[in-house]
Design brief:
heterotrimer; A mainly alpha; B mainly alpha; C alpha/beta; A: mainly alpha; 6 helices; globular; B: mainly alpha
């Protein structure tokens, strides 16, 4: 966790001071180094939650559900970051706070799925049923995301064309690319760090719940 | 001799429809809603600025999805009333047959609402659909199967939680995006008599959504039942 | 149960937790044709949960339940559809088991004294009629094992009498019966054995040995005090 935080500081120094200012977009473009990796982390968190859900239904190991739940919450946080930095970046560049374009919209729906997941968990008291139902939603959500992406892609999009994921060489000049990659690495570490912390909290909470329940005569 | 898969599915669907026919509440609400949407969208637009063709597909699909949601909750709610579902589960019936029965029941319900609303829309918006009718029906079928199957699975879970009526829309909304957006896009293109090549992308999306999600829902249904 | 007969139901070490509460703890029992086992316990002792576990509606967290043959269950909830008539309910449930079960509907309506009400909706039935119909439903597949959870609650004398007659008939027909109840007076003379459930644990199963309700209660208190 500490390493991740240090890394985060390091990336920002680099991004702000050392990376050249992008030609058409100006300094605001630097938000990209938070925005894109946050999106990546949200997606990662989502995928982890989804895959663990699948494995939970197969193995029924309670711990898997706890990790999935923690991952979902961390993912929720990252997606909020992505969704707030998006408009902040967008306003000076596009002149509008929001646009229904490909990636913002997809992340919005991932965000909604996370929210739905949390709401569902909140409405079920029995832990086994909660884990089972969360797993079902987790799997459905995982399968849904590519469809959402395809749906939005079939639309014309305002979002800057995929810079990294284009076939062929990435269109970013070398220095910026390196900053981006480092940023992604840092965010991945952040994700793991947050996940571990959140998981530890979840375990503590479960223990407390258990004690409270068995204290009832 | 135990009943076959299809007998069971049919029995469940027939029973659901018979019950809905007796009470008619969800059905009546859906039709009223359809007329409401129609009227609101119609009067809200400026006829000189917005063509009917631009508004009609959206209004149409809003109606259909909300009708579906009204019907979906009801399907498992009636099983909850006297724990009737327990009675079904006591019998040695394949769970997927029960799911199929529920799904068919829901599809029939939504289909009836769609076929009652469609002529109303044609009338109000002065749409010329006769030549496109087969294609339009095809699109309606594909999209309806998509959201009704996900909705059936979700409602089987949601009925056992608190705030069931609120939960279903919250959980279902993201799953509506690919099929409903696809349906609206396709409907508007079909009505504008665009060539097939314009439709192919969306058709493929809808078809793959249908195949994958229907299979997934069948597979996951059992996990929502066991205790 | 004669020594050579195979048991209709065998439960071994069955436990069930809900979250962190253990509601049923390490229950083992066996019943065969002609047995009528009364499960006695305070409210909250786990009777309903145990019946649901034995019926297969709940999965045990530990242990196993195995059956031979066909199972029927009468629970606190009727598992009937209020909007359907008695006949329609029976015909639906029967169709889950096969044509033979459906054909038994009229005969069962007759046996439970419900023939004059066969075409009335269940919503109009009194509690006694609902319970009798629920028993008819349970008997549709001609079960060799019947589980009942508090079958006499809220019944008037006439209805209670019908239920007791059915239980006596079942015993004569070599059906295995398990009844969870705290209404000992009406049922004790039908029982062949009594199981005492204290705090989720089946502390003893004893043959009835001609004891009356009072004697059974005394024994229960004795066992509960020592548990």
């Amino acid at each position: 966790m500490a390493i991740a935080l240090l890394g985060l500081v390091g990336v920002y120094v680099r991004a702000l001071v050392f990376t050249p200012i992008e030609r058409t977009q100006g300094p605001a473009q630097k938000i990209f180094y938070v925005h894109a990796p946050a999106a990546w982390a949200a997606l990662l968190a989502f995928a982890v939650a989804g895959i663990l859900s699948l494995i939970y239904l197969w193995l029924r190991e309670r711990k898997l559900d706890t990790i999935a739940e923690s991952s979902a919450e961390v993912g929720l946080a990252f997606s909020i970051v992505m969704l707030t930095t998006g408009p902040i970046w967008g306003k000076p560049i596009w002149g509008t706070w929001w646009s229904w374009d490909a990636r913002l919209t997809s992340t919005l729906f991932i965000f909604l799925l996370f929210v739905g997941y949390k709401v569902l968990r909140g409405a079920i008291v029995d832990p086994e049923m909660r884990a089972r139902y969360s797993a079902v939603i987790g799997i459905m959500a995982l399968v849904l995301v590519p469809f959402i992406h395809m749906t939005v892609y079939l639309f014309r999009t305002l979002h800057p064309d995929p810079v990294l994921m284009k076939p062929g060489r990435p269109a970013l000049p070398g220095v910026m690319l390196i900053t981006l990659l480092i940023s992604i690495g840092v965010f991945t570490l952040l994700y793991v760090g947050f996940l571990m912390q959140r998981y530890a909290l979840a375990v503590l909470r479960d223990v407390r719940e258990e004690e409270a329940a068995s204290a009832i005569p | 001799m135990p009943s076959s898969f299809w007998t069971v599915a049919w029995a469940v669907a027939a029973k659901d429809l018979k019950i809905e026919w007796r009470t008619k509440t969800a059905f009546a609400s859906s039709i009223v809603f359809a007329v409401l949407v129609l009227a609101v969208f119609y009067f809200a637009r400026d006829p000189t600025a917005v063509a009917a063709l631009d508004i009609a597909p959206g209004a149409l699909w809003v109606t259909f999805t909300f009708a579906a949601m009204l019907g979906l909750n009801r399907a498992f709610l009636l099983e909850k009333e006297n724990r009737a579902l327990d009675g079904i589960l006591l019998a040695p019936v394949p769970r997927s047959a029960v799911f199929l029965g529920k799904l068919v029941g829901n599809l029939a319900f939504v289909a009836v609402v769609e076929f009652v609303s469609l002529p109303l829309f044609v009338l109000f918006y002065d749409l010329a659909i006769w030549r496109q009718l087969p294609t339009l029906i095809g699109v309606m079928a594909m999209a309806t199967v998509a959201f009704v199957s996900v909705g059936t699975l979700l409602s089987s879970m949601v009925v056992r939680t608190r705030f069931a009526e609120l939960m279903l829309p919250i959980l279902l909304l993201p799953f509506l995006i690919p099929p409903v957006v696809g349906a609206v896009q396709l409907t508007s293109r079909v009505l504008a008599e665009r060539p097939l090549s314009d439709l192919v992308g969306w058709l493929k999306l809808l078809a793959s959504f249908d195949i994958i999600f229907v299979a997934l829902c069948f597979f996951l249904f059992e996990a929502t039942l066991e205790e | 149960m004669s020594p050579e007969a195979r048991p209709a139901l065998v439960a071994r070490g069955v436990s069930r937790r809900f979250g962190h509460r253990v509601v049923v703890r390490d229950v083992s029992l066996e019943v065969g044709g002609g047995d009528t086992l009364l499960l006695v316990g305070h409210n909250g002792a786990g009777k309903t949960t145990l019946i649901r576990l034995l019926a297969g509606l709940l999965k045990p967290t530990k242990g196993s339940v195995t059956y031979r043959g066909v199972l029927g269950m009468v629970a606190h909830n009727s598992m009937l559809y209020d909007a359907l008539t008695a006949r329609e309910n029976l015909s639906f449930y029967g169709s889950l088991y096969g044509r033979a079960a459906v054909q038994r509907s009229d005969e069962l309506l007759e046996r439970m004294g419900l023939t004059p009400h066969g075409d009335r909706r269940v919503a109009t039935f009194s509690r006694g009629m609902v319970q009798r119909l629920a028993i008819a439903r349970a008997l549709l597949p001609d079960p060799n094992l019947l589980l009942l959870d508090e079958p006499l609650t809220g019944l008037d004398d006439a209805a209670s009498g019908t239920v007791r007659d059915v239980l006596a008939d079942l015993r004569a027909q070599d059906c295995a019966v398990i009844v969870a109840t705290h209404q000992l007076v009406e049922l004790v003379d039908l029982a062949s054995a009594v199981g005492f459930l204290v705090g989720g644990r089946l502390v003893a199963v004893e043959p009835i040995e001609g004891r009356d309700a009072t004697a059974v209660m005394v024994r229960y208190r004795e066992l509960a005090a020592n548990a």
